[in-house]
Specification:
Elements: H1 18-27, H2 34-46, H3 49-80, H4 82-88
Helix pairs in contact: 3-4
Length: 89
């Protein structure tokens, strides 16, 4: 994949500050850098429990998004009124 996209998949990303790391994660939250994914797969080949932990984090993250969205809709509906909210949708 790295070769097809013109990326050096073997080279790990340079260490960055917390803000740049968070921004990079926000832009590519579904798929991390190729080097990081390769490193994770190599670590998981040695320790299979890493896969279950990653699945658990993914599950919790998705449910966090669902709960956050429901909370946002509830707050918005309470703030502007449910009739207005349904009319806007």
């Amino acid at each position: 994949m790295a070769e097809l996209n013109g990326i050096d998949g073997r080279k790990p990303a340079a260490r960055r500050g917390a803000v740049r790391t968070a921004w990079a994660w926000a832009r590519a939250w579904q798929h991390g850098p190729i080097a990081g994914r390769i490193e994770f797969l190599l670590r998981m080949s040695e320790d299979q429990t890493l896969g279950a932990a990653a699945d658990r984090r993914s599950f919790l993250f998705r449910w966090g998004l669902v709960v956050g969205l429901c909370a946002a809709v509830a707050v918005l509906g309470s703030y502007i009124g449910w009739e207005e909210l349904w009319r806007m949708l």
